[in-house]
Structures are given as structure tokens and as C-alpha cells.
Amino acid sequence: MSTQETSPSAPAAVVWTGPGQIRRLATAIALGEAAGVLVPVVVIALMARISTEAMYVRSLYVPLALLFAALQVGFDVSNQVAASVSRGAGRSQDVLPVAASMARIGLAVWGAVSVALMVAAPGLASLLSVPEASAGEFVAFTRWAALANLIFFPTVLLSSSLRGQGRPRSAAAVVLTGATVEVAGVAILGFGTDLGVFSLPIAIAAGGVAALTVGAVQVYRCGLWQVRGPMVWRSEAIGRLTSVGLPVAVSFIVMAVAGAGLLWALGPFGTDVVSGYSAAGALQNLLIVPASALGSATAIVLNQLRGAGRHGDGPAVLRAGLRLTAVVYAVLAAAIWLGREPLAELLADDPAVSAETVTFLAIVGLTYFCLGLNVMTLLLVEQVGGGLIALLLNVPYFGGMVVLGSIMARTQHDPSALYWTIAALNLCGVLIVPLITWRHVRRISRVEAS
């Protein structure tokens, strides 16, 4: 850890120095996000080798995992925005009190959702058409996983405080610790015991405890901990959560519902299709990490500049972020499409499951260039006061994917019809989302500068 990252001294004034400012920040953020997103990919690969049943149950849990991701990202983004603005304004002493205030709200909300999910698990099994032989295992797994996810909530606020403060490597250390412990736990318990899919909730809980410990240490070392400060209630936490976090969380809920809808649409085509699609989805989650990191990095820089009163730099920051994203995804989209067969074999050991993953990537792979730009600009607009805009853009995208894609797949009796729908929506999105984001950034830059 460098002296610059760990020193508690006052940060230097924030100024716009060019694309390298975004690139350096995005690289560090991507390290942590890649670890977080790579975990489901590795877990699915491990589950496939533990047993076909374990992989199937884990695949069904993907939309429910997105529900917890909705809560996580709502608090994460709200706190990151607050920390970024405080950093730009030279008020680092405000970072942890705001995070602690959000924690009080979050523990109640997160706990309520976990209990509701545990109660609703049998109904979800019926809704997803889970075979009777697998229903009991799915219900038990869902309940234990919901309980284990409670432990991860405090680490979300610690890592987002560090990122917003301009210390992404410290934040990455928190995420990397949790990810490493979780994957190691699944590997050790999954192959060394008879726990099967139930090794995952235990591993999640262990990873949460380890990440929380590292997060507390990093916050202390970075000088953000003030005596008695974190215990002071900060009402601005409510404003950040309602204006930023709520629209972002609702967008993720839309994604979770859409994920469940797509599994419902693919259900009649058999478990191989469901598992193959889920494997491709896990790979896609990893693929959008660079876009997520670039969107967050661009937003952090922009919010720090807003906090410092440098409102006119917004369009230049956005242009730099868009150029970096376009270059990265021109390479990634081609690589995924060309390497779809070895990637599918890596994700799934079963030939039938692997073949379905190849089909998905052959149709959708090249449109990942569009998806990268869409994700980057959506994440940016969410963090600069456009959460409602992002929500209104997400609803037709995911709604169209489920409604139109489901109709096409079921009427043509071919799951690839749904994949073509996803590809078409990616292409349509790139014609709309970056333009709307550009107009929003220019507008807030003019309004705040006046």
C-alpha cells in the first residue's frame, strides 16, 4: 500500500488533468469489481463439477442474487456519491458519519428483504417451475443464502467510502478478501464434504466476516475514522438514498425481475438451456466490469470536480470516459465472439450446456461493444443525479427483453429467438443511452456553473 493511499493528511485539491485520471481510477476499481463479479463465474464452474443438481439450483438463484445486488448498489452508489462530493469539497471528516447513518437505514431494509425472501422461497420454486425433486433443496438453499448475505452489507459502505474518497486500491482490498475467502470456501467444502450447493452460504458468510475486518482496518488506516464522529446522525444520508440510491435500486430490481422472467421463458426448454444461459449470463456479468469501472471512475471524478466547484469540466470528463470505453469494448467484444467455444467449455463441463452457451455468445457476442457503452453511460448518469433517467431507460430494455423475447422464443419454440432479441436491444440502446447521458451532463454543468 502506498504512502499516498494510506496517509491521513488532507487531500490535494481536485482538478481535471485528462483521461489518465479516469484510467488510473478505473483500473483500481475494476480490480475490485472483477473479483466480485468473477466469484459467481467461478462458483458456477465449481458447482458444475460438484454435481449437475448443484449447478441447476445455483443457476435458479441468480435472479434472487440480483435482488440483493439491488440493495447493495443502491447504498453503495449513494454513499460513493456522498464521499466523492465531500472529497472534492475538502470535507473528508463527513465521509464516515454519512456512511454510518446509511448503515442504520440499510440494516433494517436489508433484514426485511432477507426475511421476506426466506418466507417466499416455496412460492418462488413453484413460479420458476422447479422440478419436485429439486424444490426442497432450492428452498433450503435460498433461505441460507439470504441469511448469509446479511453479513456483507457493512462492507458495502466501507468500500464505497474508500472509493469515493479516492482510495480505490483500499476498497479493492476489501472486495478481494471477501471474494478469495468465498471461492476458497466453496472449493474446500464443495469437494471435501457432502454439503454440495450448501457449501456456498457458508462460504458467503465466511467471506463477509473477512471482508468486514479488512474494511474496518483500511478505513482506520486511511484516517477516515474520527472519534465519536461516525455515531452522529446525518440527515443528508436520507437525501442521498432517495435521490440517488432508490432509482438505482429499483433499476436493479427491474433487472432481477427480468432475470426471473427470462428463466421462466427458458424453463420449458429444459435444464440444459437454463444452465447454459446462466453460464453465459455469468460471463456477461464479468464482461461488463470494465464498463462499470469506467462509469464509476468517470462519475467519481465528475462528482469530485462538482464538489470542488469546477462544474464546467463535466463534458470533457464524459468525452474522455466514452473514448476509453469504446476502445476497451471494441477489443473485448471481438475476443468474446471469436473465443466463444473455449469459453463455453471452461464454464460448463457438460457438452449440452456448453453448446447452449456457445449459441448465446455467437448471437449476442459482437453487440457487447454496444452493451459496454450503454452500461458505462447508465452508471455515470445514475451517479450524477440522473437515477430516474437511468430507470426510465432500463425499464423498456429489460421489459422488452422479457416480454418480446419470451413471446419470440415460445412461439418459435427456439430459445435463440430470445437471444436475438437481446442482441437487437443492445444495438438500439447504443443509439439512445449515450446521447441522453451527454445531454444530462451538459445540462447539470450549465446549471451548477450559473
Automatic annotation (TrEMBL):
Top-level taxon of the source organism: Bacteria
Subcellular location, principal: membrane
Membrane topology (UniProt): Multi-pass membrane protein
Keywords recorded for this protein, A-Z: Cell membrane, Membrane, Transmembrane, Transmembrane helix, Transport
Entry-linked InterPro entries: MATE_fam, Membrane_Transporter-Flippase
Cellular localisation: Cell membrane
Transmembrane segments: 25-48, 98-121, 141-159, 171-192, 198-220, 241-266, 286-305, 317-338, 358-381, 388-411, 417-436
Keyword check for Nucleotide-binding: no
Protein name from the UniProt record: MATE family efflux transporter
Annotated source species: Paractinoplanes hotanensis
